[in-house]
Each structure stands twice: as structure tokens, then as C-alpha cells.
Amino acid sequence: MIPPRLRRIAADETGATAVEYAMLLAMLILVAIAGINALGGANNAFWQGNIDALAAAIFNANS
User: Fold this and answer.
1) How much of the chain exceeds pLDDT 70, in percent?
2) Where does the sequence pass through the membrane (predicted)?
3) DSSP for 29-60?
4) Which of these, 44, 40, 42, lies nearest to 52 by C-alpha position?
5) Distance CA 6, CA 10 (A)
6) Smallest Cα–Cα separation from 25: which of 17, 13, 14, 15?
7) Band of the pLDDT at 39, cuts 50, 70, 90?
8) CA-to-CA distance for 25 and 16, rounded, in angstroms?
């Protein structure tokens, strides 16, 4: 036999929406991290090429 107070607590759904939004946010964060990891190498090569070109331009301008 379950006490009435415990039955009320188990049936209460007031925090369910917050939990659902937290789970959705966690899933979105995981997808974002996976995307960053998948594209990280290409992104790093892109920015490294820009840095190298900028460094060469600055070096040649000062020579």
C-alpha cells in the first residue's frame, strides 16, 4: 500500500517540462560537439592557412 502523499508526489508532473527541455538541450550540445569534432581538422587547416598568409604578408611588408 502506497501512502497518499507518496502517490501525489509520483503523479505530480509540474517539473516534467523542465526535464524535457534539459534533455533536449543536452542532445543539442552533444550534436554540436560531434559536429565540431568532425569538422575540426578542416577548420584548423583553413585558419592555419590564413595565419600563415597573414604572417608572410607582414614579414614581406617589413622587409
Assistant:
1) 100
2) 21-40
3) HHHHHHHHHHHHHHHHHHHHHHHHHHHHHHHH
4) 44
5) 6
6) 17
7) confident
8) 14
